[in-house]
C-alpha cells in the first residue's frame, strides 16, 4: 500500500514527528470476498512486522458492501522512504500478489497509488 496524501496533525513531543492520518478506499471484488477475509483473519507476522517497521500504526481495514476503507497513522519522518521500504520487502510483495487481485481500484485513484487516498475533512481528539 502506498500513499502520497495525508495531513500533518498535532505534533507529539519536541523530538517526535507529527502523526499523519490516512484514509484510503478500494473496491473488494465480490468473487474474492471470502479469500480476502480469510487472508486478513491471519495476516502473516512478517507483513505486520514490516508495517510496524515502516512507522504505520493504528492500522484498520473496514468493509461496507464492496468497499474497503483503510485507516492508519504514520509516525515516521520520511513517509515516501518508508513506503518504498515496504514495497521492496519480498514478503510484503508476496502478500500483495495474493491481496491485489481481490481488489479493484475506484474511480478516484491517483497515479502511483493502488488504494484511493481520501481527504480528511474532520478530526477530533
Can you describe this structure?
This protein is an alpha+beta fold. The chain is 30% helix and 26% strand. It is built from 4 helices and 6 strands. Strands 1, 2, 3, 4, 5 and 6 form a 6-stranded antiparallel sheet that branches. The radius of gyration is 15 Å and the shape is globular. The model is unreliable at 1-12 (pLDDT under 50).
Stretches with pLDDT under 50, minimum 5 residues: 1-12
The tally of helices reads 4
Radius of gyration: 15 Å
Q: Count the strands?
A: 6
Structural class estimated from helices and strands = alpha+beta
* Largest sheet features: 6 strands, antiparallel
Question: What spatial form do the alpha-carbon principal axes imply?
Answer: globular
Share of residues in helices: 25-40%
Order of helices and strands: EEHHEEHHEE
What is the beta-strand fraction? 25-35%
Distance between the termini: 26 Å
The averaged pLDDT comes out at 89
Write the layout of secondary structure elements.
Layout: E1 7-8, E2 20-28, H1 33-41, H2 45-53, E3 56-64, E4 67-74, H3 79-88, H4 90-99, E5 103-104, E6 116-118
Amino acid at each position: 500500500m502506498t500513499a502520497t496524501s495525508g495531513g500533518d496533525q498535532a505534533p507529539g513531543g519536541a523530538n517526535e514527528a507529527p502523526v499523519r492520518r490516512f484514509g484510503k478506499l478500494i473496491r473488494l471484488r465480490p468473487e474474492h470476498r471470502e479469500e480476502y477475509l480469510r487472508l486478513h483473519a491471519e495476516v502473516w507476522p512478517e507483513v505486520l512486522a514490516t508495517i510496524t517497521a515502516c512507522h504505520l500504526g493504528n492500522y484498520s481495514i473496514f468493509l461496507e458492501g464492496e468497499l474497503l476503507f483503510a485507516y492508519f497513522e504514520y509516525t515516521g519522518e520520511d513517509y515516501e522512504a518508508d513506503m518504498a521500504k515496504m514495497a521492496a520487502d519480498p514478503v510484503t510483495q508476496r502478500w500483495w500478489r495474493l491481496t491485489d487481485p481481490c481488489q479493484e481500484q475506484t474511480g478516484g485513484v491517483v497515479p502511483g497509488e493502488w488504494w484511493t487516498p481520501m481527504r480528511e475533512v474532520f478530526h477530533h481528539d
